């Protein structure tokens, strides 16, 4: 079949297998050309099929020489193409195995106890010594089912206390539009924390610690985002921010436990704003990203997921014995984004942006290209008029 992009409410609901595999291959080739990283060789990535999770896995394998195991929940091909992560995982496993690395991807609900049992058994089978040295928690989902009670929690991205009013962009129509989101109800905060906080991460680490599959000196990390003040009302001070604060609290608890048991460490990495399938629909954030990209590209400090995760493992996590942290005990991968000169320039142009000057003042084209490539479209060298075997 010929596959074309189909976007509804700023969400692309189709994926192109050939384009996705070409993007993953390109990321792998970039990583192979970077200086090698001296790091442990057994890595588990929970949520390693797209975005930061995939980039961490690629870095660990192709710059660090690590064997890797990925867990993600993907829609497999049926009448339509699979979800993007399905094709990313397949290409990764193929390329890693071709180099003699152990690489497997488990397609399953990472929130379930049954999946944890399967993964623990696979760790014992796949990795030397039956243990892992690094556990990356990069799961992203709008819902989570409690593995004990069966209750379904749904997250919301809403402000707390006061409604949000501001501007954002409609990427499809390429125009600046007004955005208004009502304040959340009190009952919506806790479910958001349940989905996007640290509870499931802790369950994973506890289960693996009990099973004896965490190695001496093990490290574990989860990813977060803080953002500038212009996004705080909808993000850091909103429902999702409460979940991210819970994530940090969980990391502190895991740090004490792992340090005592194995001399290990746990940390939260605060990453840069980038185009993801979720960030594209959060009000304000897409507009902020288009302006951020233009400024950082002009300054030569722009990074995509690959560059950022390579820098994290090479220069922040494994350069010395322990991960490099700031005064708030966080690994700051958003350090270049939050540079005062960058933020000052963003504020200089923020109020000026309107539809008539959107393309001139921002990197709308870069945002659009990154978003389309997440789904395998607009990739150089791919013939989109050709028939595609979705399997």
Defining key terms:
13 helices; 17% strand; alpha/beta; seven-stranded parallel beta sheet; two-stranded antiparallel sheet; Rossmann fold; 391 residues
Report on the structure:
- The structure is a single chain.
- This protein is an alpha/beta fold and 391 residues long.
- It has 13 helices and 13 strands.
- The protein is 41% helix and 17% strand.
- The strands form 4 sheets. The protein has a 7-stranded parallel sheet with strand order 5-4-3-6-11-12-13, sandwiched between helices. A two-stranded antiparallel sheet has the order 1-2.
- The model has no long low-confidence stretch (mean pLDDT 95).
The gist of it:
By secondary structure, the protein is of the alpha/beta class. It is 41% helix and 17% strand. Helix 5 crosses helix 8.
Strand and helix map with partners:
Layout: E1 7-8, E2 11-12, H1 17-32, E3 42-46, H2 51-62, E4 67-72, H3 84-98, E5 103-107, H4 113-126, E6 132-137, E7 143-145, E8 152-154, E9 164-170, E10 175-181, H5 189-196, H6 199-211, E11 214-224, H7 229-232, H8 239-262, E12 265-270, H9 285-299, H10 305-317, E13 331-332, H11 340-350, H12 358-361, H13 364-373
Parallel strand pairs: 3-4, 3-6, 4-5, 6-11, 11-12, 12-13
Antiparallel strand pairs: 1-2, 7-8, 9-10
Helix pairs in contact: 1-2, 1-3, 2-3, 2-10, 5-8, 6-8, 9-11, 9-13
Query: CATH H level: which superfamily?
Result: NAD(P)-binding Rossmann-like Domain
Count the DSSP helices: 13
Helix content: 40-55%
The termini sit apart by 11 Å
CATH architecture: 3-Layer(aba) Sandwich
Give me the strand/helix succession: EEHEHEHEHEEEEEHHEHHEHHEHHH
Q: Indicate how many domains the architecture comprises.
A: 1
């Amino acid at each position: 079949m010929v596959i074309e992009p189909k976007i509804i409410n700023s969400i692309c609901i189709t994926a192109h297998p050939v384009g996705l595999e070409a993007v993953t291959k390109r990321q792998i080739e970039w990583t192979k050309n970077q200086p090698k990283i001296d790091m442990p060789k057994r890595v588990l990535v929970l949520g390693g099929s797209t975005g930061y999770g995939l980039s961490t896995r690629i870095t660990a394998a192709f710059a660090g020489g690590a064997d890797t195991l990925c867990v993600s929940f993907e829609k497999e091909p049926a009448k339509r193409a699979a979800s993007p992560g399905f094709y990313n995982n397949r290409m990764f496993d193929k390329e890693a195995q071709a180099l003699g690395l152990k690489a497997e991807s488990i397609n399953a609900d990472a929130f379930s106890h049954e999946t944890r049992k399967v993964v623990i058994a696979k760790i014992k089978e796949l990795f030397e010594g039956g243990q892992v040295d690094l556990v990356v928690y990069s799961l992203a989902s709008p819902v989570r089912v409690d593995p004990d009670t069966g209750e379904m929690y749904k997250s919301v991205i809403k402000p707390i206390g006061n409604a949000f009013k501001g501007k954002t962009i409609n990427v499809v129509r390429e125009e600046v539009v007004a955005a208004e989101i009502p304040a959340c109800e009190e009952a919506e905060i806790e479910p958001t924390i349940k989905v996007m906080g640290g509870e499931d991460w802790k369950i994973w680490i506890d289960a693996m610690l009990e099973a004896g599959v965490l190695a001496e000196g093990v490290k574990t990390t989860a990813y977060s985002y803080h953002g500038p003040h212009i996004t705080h009302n909808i993000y850091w001070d909103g429902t999702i921010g409460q979940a991210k604060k819970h994530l940090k609290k969980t990391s502190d608890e895991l740090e004490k436990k792992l340090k005592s048991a194995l001399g290990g460490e746990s940390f939260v990495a605060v990453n840069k704003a980038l185009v993801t399938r979720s960030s594209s629909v959060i009000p304000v954030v897409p507009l902020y990203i288009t302006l951020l990209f233009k400024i950082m590209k002009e300054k030569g400090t722009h990074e995509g997921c690959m560059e950022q995760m390579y820098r994290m493992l090479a220069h922040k996590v494994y350069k010395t014995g322990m991960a490099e942290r700031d005064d708030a005990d966080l690994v700051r991968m958003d350090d270049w984004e939050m540079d005062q000169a960058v933020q000052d320039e963003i504020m200089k142009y923020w109020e000026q942006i309107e539809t008539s000057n959107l393309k001139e003042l921002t990197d709308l084209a870069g945002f659009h290209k990154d978003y389309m490539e997440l789904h395998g479209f607009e990739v150089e060298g791919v013939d989109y008029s050709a028939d595609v075997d979705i399997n």
